Amino acid sequence: MLPVMERFHSLQGEGAHCGRSAFFIRLAYCKVGCPWCDTKKSWSAELHPKENIIQLSLDAVKAQADGAGFVVLTGGEPLHHNLTPLCKAIRKYTTIDGINPMPIHLETSGVDQITGSPDWITLSPKRHAPPRLEALKLCQELKVIVHEEEDLMFAEDMADKTQKSLLKETLLFLQPGWNNKKGHQLAIQYVRHNPKWRLSMQTHKLLGVQ
Asked: Exposure of 17 by Cβ count < 10 A (0-12 exposed, 13-18 middle, 19+ buried)?
């Protein structure tokens, strides 16, 4: 049983998989406390019902049949919970003919141990609550929110700690804080002059979709 704020089938609006059809499971509970968070209703686990992981997996199956290409575990901070049982259930129920279960994407700040063996990790580290080194080494995607100049220095520090090899190199994204003009200017200018970085926008908000 896990506290669930919402689940829905939509498009991934940010980062490397922007524009792709996905099924989102937003778990409740977060102690990170970002002041700019747009889902503060997810901070308290007590405000949201606990739901059975089997039912969540069956909902993923329905979304899969309707075109969702992967499952996104988000929050809140999903790693405040042990995700292994949920991920096992999703893989069990979304496997077709014994192969190719739905990929599981995790969106996290990286403050807790990674569980569930996700197929894709989007790490969005926070200056006031830095991530574990494990998360930096395992993530496929680093996404830093930009509000001020210090966020750019923090982004470079985080990027230096990610995995870099011939087999795996983390994708680097700067994402302006929503409705933050300074953050937009800083992120755009920095990406223009630093080609290892890409710009991420919250396109779902721009398009008015969930």
From this structure: buried
